[in-house]
């Protein structure tokens, strides 16, 4: 379930998963590997900075094109 109240400039885990085309488990794995950091929210409903997600997406696209 997605959080209804989220700080501007942040995304929920569900939104991150949709943007990156991965599952929620994939989002958790990115956090575990240190590739994506939580930027607020709660333990059960973390938020991620849009800028961090955009940078990660650009890096993934760059690797994919190489």
Task: Please write out the topology.
Layout: E1 10-12, H1 13-20, H2 24-32, E2 47-49, H3 50-65
Helix pairs in contact: 1-2
Number of strands: 2
Structural class comes to mainly alpha
Shape: globular
- Spans with pLDDT under 50 lasting ≥5 residues? none
The description of the largest β-sheet is:
2 strands, antiparallel
**SS strand fraction:** 5-15%
Rg, alpha carbons = 12 Å
Question: Whole-Å distance between the termini?
Answer: 36 Å
The helix/strand series, from N terminus to C terminus, equals EHHEH
Helix content: 40-55%
User: What is the average of the pLDDT values?
Assistant: 92
How many DSSP helices?
A: 3
- How do the strands line up in the largest sheet? 1-2
What does this structure look like?
By secondary structure, this protein is mainly alpha-helical. It is 50% helix and 9% strand. It contains three helices and two strands; from the N terminus they run E-H-H-E-H. The chain has helices at residues 13-20, 24-32, 50-65; strands spanning 10-12, 47-49. A two-stranded antiparallel ribbon has the order 1-2. Helix 1 (13-20) crosses helix 2. The N and C termini lie far apart (36 Å). The relative contact order is 0.21. The mean pLDDT is 92.
């Amino acid at each position: 379930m997605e959080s209804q109240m989220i700080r501007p400039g942040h995304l929920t885990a569900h939104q991150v998963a949709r943007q990156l085309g991965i599952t929620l488990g994939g989002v958790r794995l990115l956090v575990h590997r240190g590739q994506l950091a939580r930027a607020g929210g709660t333990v059960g409903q973390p938020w991620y900075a849009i800028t961090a997600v955009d940078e990660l997406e650009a890096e993934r696209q760059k690797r994919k094109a190489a």
